[in-house]
Amino acid sequence: MAMHTPLKQTYNYAFLDEGSKKEIRRATLKAVAIPGYQVPFASREMPIGRGWGTGGLQLTLSLIGDGDTLKVIDQGNDDSVNAVSIKKLVQACTNVAVTTDAEQATLIQSRHRIPEVPIRADQILVFQVPIPEPLRFVEPKEKKSKHLHAEMDYSGIWLRLYEDIVKWGKISIGADYPALAHKRYIFAPSPIPRYDLPKLHQAEGLFLFGAGREKKIYAIPPYTDVEPLAFDDYPFEVEHFEGCSCRLCGSTDSFLDELYDEAAGQTFYQCSDTGYCRKCRERGAQHGK
Amino acid sequence: MTDTKSFHEVHDTRRVYRSLLDSMARPGKLHDLSPQMNSIPNAIPLFSGTYALGRTLLDAQTTFYLETENNEAASYLELRTGSRMLAAERADYLFIETQPSVDLIRTLMQQIRIGTLLEPEKSATLIIRVRALSDSETSGITMTLSGPGIKKRRTLSADGFNPEWLRIRAARNMEYPTGCDFILISDNGQMAALPRTTMIESEAV
Amino acid sequence: MGYVAVTGGQQAIETANLLNQWYRLKDADHALEVTAIEKQMRHLVDRVISESGLYAPNDAALALKQAEGDPAEAAFLLRAYRSTLERNVESLTVDPGQMRVIRRISSAFKDIPGSQILGPTADYTHRLLNFTLRNEEAQAALKSVLQQLPKQDNPHTDHRQPFRKVADLLRAQGLLSPPNARNGLVDITRDKLTFPVPRSAKLQLLSRGDTGAMTALACSSMREHTAQHPTVAELRVGYVELTVAYPLASNETLSLGEVMVTEVETINSFTKKDNGDVQFQLGYGLTFGQNETKAIAMAILEQRLETDGTSPTHDEEFVLLHVDSIEANGFVSHLKLPHYITFQSKLDVLRQAQKLAAEKTDHQEV
């Protein structure tokens, strides 16, 4: 199937039937009204695998229409196979414009990253979420973790962080670092790096989170407090890239992928946000002239 | 049969939804629904704002309550959406097209669902028709809003909006996350939302 | 520099798709006919319509062709297609007691009203590879089968008269509680799933569950220390009629045709009810198509989920969140996606922890 082949008439605009869209939309509106709270929804089966971004995809399809420009990234990369596959599907059933430039997009669907350039008020960032429950690693049962959220009983997760410090000398959570939304709900920001987490705090844009297999939608509205869990004497820390820069564009202020060149026997760094990296290089080339 | 084909089930409901979502995400910010409302024929027994939002939100999975002066309005909305009209205490969405008395406002606001700590989403959304909405101090009541979605503060003025709604809203939204969400829509299609997280200061209250 | 970033996703997936097509067709003399799959791969088609929850045998056959015979992938294709279909009407409740039965057995009673009907089954054949199938001529073979069949078992004879269900006989004797009244059915494809899950949602989830996963879980529940060995009160396979209310006259119905289902009722140990009655507990299984092992597994799991206990099969989150083929396959296979970011983030934490550990050790040595 070529990139622009529209799906045959058998499928509705934006794939989902209108009843499904309505349900997703109603859940999304509630999610925005209760920041960080996981609203259950009857997640539909999508033509991509469960766990491959079906939650994000359903959100995107419930939102998208004429006038939108879509960007899809996986690990920050527009050209990652799954990002391409999702973009292709959305395009086939809507025919909206797509872009790799974060600043041109009205809708961005992402797996594991927030673009380097801040999300504006006229943009929506949709996250694909594997495990929406931040308490899952301290409380395996959904029925119980739901009660813990209701009673704001977060002692289990705090204890876990404390034990981490005793054992490792620091909090050992890598990506998907839990944070408190609007001083009420602890939520999972999806497996974005810690580096991206502060971008959710008092931001200009709207952030929507979709977990298809786990059937949850939640949101961080603009200008909402998002506080990573931390202790006064063990503050929240982002990933360290001291002394490293992108080997392609030279950036020292972006999240870097670590790469190993076997031939040279050396470790290299490269911007994880490929759209940002390309723009930096283009700008650099212009200055060079 | 009333001709409603100019309001597009797929594209107009989506546009209404995007406005609604942005309204919820940025409480008090005005959105103009008039292009969608103008595509609805005048002959229907409903306020076009009710129709546009009803078609966007309602289906057989949901229930509504309608406060109207037109006897045919409820069954018309049921027919058009597949949703069912229920008593206020059981409705997911309450559409208030009239200017209810203070007593009726109190009764309705006491009856509506506000969800539970376990399921705060099982709460009512009220869609209240007002005469006019503005983001500057004009006639009617002026509200100063703060909370999620608002950078510091925002001003919203509503004409034809009984301050009693706000008084009881404050009481019912006392125990966050339980509470109810408001959507205000004016005669000419201006829309603004007041989700439960929005703190409202007003001299009228 | 030697390193080239992994990119070119667009081209790469086009190529992957083309190669997949090439492998599908490279040794084919002629393309498989969808109807042949539908009519001759009966159990595979039945499995797919059951796990997808869409009674569309011909579409299931098409999905199997597309998926090159992978039932999980075929069920997934149908599910995704199903989720785009508008819900126009809901059928009226089907009474499996009115089933046009083609097969019906009871392990509880030797003699049941209407008698045991073995019907089409391979249960009593030796599992020897039948090499004559290599050179089978369909029409001749069919003719030979029909000639050998006793007259009274000619499949064209219609067992139209319904059989009373074994469970109803037990109920009539007060050995089994009456079925639960139809109180507020949940539709798992339309309603949010929240725990604890209502029984109607459990049954729907299990009915669409993965045959292999359910069989494994049911098997474990029969082996463990709290094990109960259920008795199949009745297993019946046949056709039930689907009807809808006639839109213009509320007391009339319209027939949409028949679907094939397998229904199983198992009897487990007895229990003392709140009102003091001592009665058997029933397990219930129902699937689209002829899926007998799955239907039995469903009855076992359903009953386990309705009773308290400490074994994994009493745990509704454990059972219900893992038996769906589409969800389990999706989540396990998503590990094939890149996880560079999470890995980079973990790498950073590990290095910091190593640094701290080293500093601590240095400090202690001093």
What does this structure look like?
The complex is a heterotrimer of chains A (289), B (205) and C (366). Chain A is of the alpha/beta class. Chain A has two domains: 186 residues, Rossmann fold; 50 residues, no CATH class. Chain A is 27% helix and 18% strand. In chain A, a hairpin with a 3-residue loop joins strand 6 and strand 7. Chain A is globular, with a radius of gyration of 20 Å. The mean pLDDT of chain A is 92. The radius of gyration of chain B is 16 Å and the shape is globular. With 205 residues, chain B is an alpha/beta fold. In chain B, the strands form two sheets. A seven-stranded mixed sheet of chain B has the order 1-10-9-5-4-2-3. Chain B has a four-stranded antiparallel sheet with strand order 6-8-7-11, covered by helices on one side. Chain B contains six helices and eleven strands. Helices cover 29% and strands 23% of the residues of chain B. In chain B, helix 1 crosses helix 3 and helix 5 packs parallel to helix 6. Chain B has one domain: Bacterial phosphonate metabolism protein PhnH (Rossmann fold, 3-Layer(aba) Sandwich), CATH 3.40.50.11310. In chain B, helix 4 links the parallel strand 2 and strand 3. The model of chain B has no long low-confidence stretch (mean pLDDT 94). Chain C is α+β, with helices and mostly antiparallel strands. Chain C has three domains: 73 residues, no CATH class; 210 residues, no CATH class; 26 residues. Chain C is built from 13 helices and four strands. In chain C, helix 3 crosses helix 4. The N terminus of chain C is likely disordered. At the A-C interface, helix 1, helix 3, helix 4 and strand 11 of A face helix 1, helix 5, helix 12 and helix 13 of C.
